[in-house]
Design goal:
Length: 122
């Protein structure tokens, strides 16, 4: 099994519903998303997937969220925009994009700060 990972960053605001503390108020983060994909076979160039293609796929999912208030965007208009839910959202969105390459998303890690992150593994 081979795995590769790529990072992408974006900025967005959110407020956690049903949370008692500072994070129930509107605030923002400079998010960092790390996606790891896995597969059994390398292509003729010896690559699982070009890093640029993986980064491009992450960017395509992140760009509509960039500099937005996540609570206003589907699915986060009803789903709490926590780092955990963001990680699962990225995983699901990317899995459909990578399926044609014979790859699967192994994990997605979303950092809200330099020292805090949430990981989702399907």
């Amino acid at each position: 099994m081979f795995e590769i990972s790529a990072h992408y960053t974006f900025a967005a605001g959110h407020a956690l519903r049903g949370y008692k503390g500072k994070c129930e108020n509107v605030h923002g983060h400079n998010y960092r998303v790390e996606v790891t994909v896995a597969g059994e076979k390398l292509d003729s160039a010896g690559l699982l997937l070009d890093f640029a293609d993986l980064r491009g796929a992450i960017k395509a999912v992140a760009e509509p969220l960039d500099h937005q208030f996540l609570n206003d965007l589907a699915p986060f208009d009803s789903l709490n925009p926590s780092a955990e839910n963001l990680a699962q959202y990225f995983c699901e969105q990317l899995q459909s994009r990578l399926k044609n390459h014979g790859l699967r998303v192994a994990q997605v890690k979303v950092w809200e700060t330099d020292t805090t992150s949430a990981t989702y593994r399907p």
